[in-house]
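yo

u said u wanted the structure for the complex thing, so here. seqs first:
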Amino acid sequence: MYWDPKMECMPKEELKKMQYESIKKLVNNLYEFNQFYHDRMKAANIHPSDIKSLSDVSKLPFMYKQDLRDNYPTKMFTVPNEKVVRYHVSSGTTGKPTLVGYTRGDLDYWSEALARSMTSIGMNSSDTLQVSYGYGLFTGGLGAHYGGERIGATVLPSGTGGTERQIELMVDLGVTAIACTPSYLIHIGEVAKKMGVDIRRDTKLKRALVGAEPWTESMRQHIEEDMGIKAYDIYGTSEMAGPMFTECEERNGIHMQSDIVYVEIIDPETGEVLEPGQKGEMVVTMLKKEAFPLVRYRIKDITSIIDEDCPCGRTSPRIKRITGRSDDMLIIRGINVFPSQVEYTLMQIPQVGNQYMIIVEREGSLDKMTVQVEIKEESFSDKLDDMIKLQKYIEYEMKKYLNIAVNIELKNPGELPRFEGKAKRVIDKRVM
Ligand code: DLL
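structre next:
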């Protein structure tokens, strides 16, 4: 089943032509009316008239996350405030978040993208969709919510947490599809077992829309065998809008809908565009964005393009499962955490010295982050109570800032390792 068969199955040549036309118009507009893009293109010695074919897009300069930070909050927006109807915020590396703005049109194509994606995995208006991504500044909850409503499904906006209650509702309301992170889905499975609920026997759950953090084929198998459901990979980033693109029922790559995004894969070192099949860093140009355009934006996710036709009949290019990032972002329980955010937070606390170590591990199915922190000599106390108070205070600040629970282990001055070259402050035991 297709949601928008004309667009989803448009012949490839036509799609490419349409992409070229969209990019040409976009670049002309930005050069003409947007200072940032105008300056960026001038500095790269590129004029919109140089873009004579789709492959000429590679002549355009890259855009980086840092550009969004430098222009925080709204300097990159290309519409007046009256046209902006929504903000989402994603956390940033230096303490400065990234703000994404949406016009009505942006919300519309975002929902449309999700409606196509959900239809492509076999969902329809008879589904009851439990959205267990976080609602709020994170794009996961509201994104999946509006996609579900667009196809006419009944949406249960349960958000994250309160797992037992979520399971009760899943049973009582006959939930057929769930959208959440892979680690949360596994956790839900474990809690259900403890409650004596057998997902296969006691619920109507058939599908899961799983993403927002890297996950593997073996995790998919584990989930599917355990719960008797099908788990589909869903991808997107807040800068692009939020969750948007999924696998189809073939489950061999994520369809990157061609009227919405133009995808390039580059060598992260040289910036050179790679061939389909070659693994590299994804670069996106968004074709429909109104409030907050993105041209050749370096997402940093590592993947490759699958060049073969998909048996489902959809003609958009697919990307392989994201295997990681070309930078150092950690994803803890579906929330992005950069080591530099941890450092930033620690450095606001006067008692903390300048040595710390981040340890990430998986306990059961949940990620656990521990930060070992050296305390300044003068702040150290023999009184256990004082130390516990300080530890709790740092944990509180971390939670406030990073939005996740972090365990703090206080260390004596001089206790943590020193480095002669580059410091290694992150031990990610999940990938060891
Ligand atoms: O995570 C949007 C989203 C919400 C996607 C719900 C899917 C489901 P951000 O918080 O900006 O947006 O984080 C985006 O998360 O660059 C990837 O590194 C990672 N990511 C997202 N989906 C996947 C996935 C949302 N399916 C960053 N596989 C991206 C691997 C993923 N990594």
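DSSP finds twelve helices and 21 strands in the chain. The pocket of DLL is lined by residues 90, 133, 139-140, 211-214, 233-238, 242-243, 299, 301, 322, 325, 336 (CB under 6 Å).
cya
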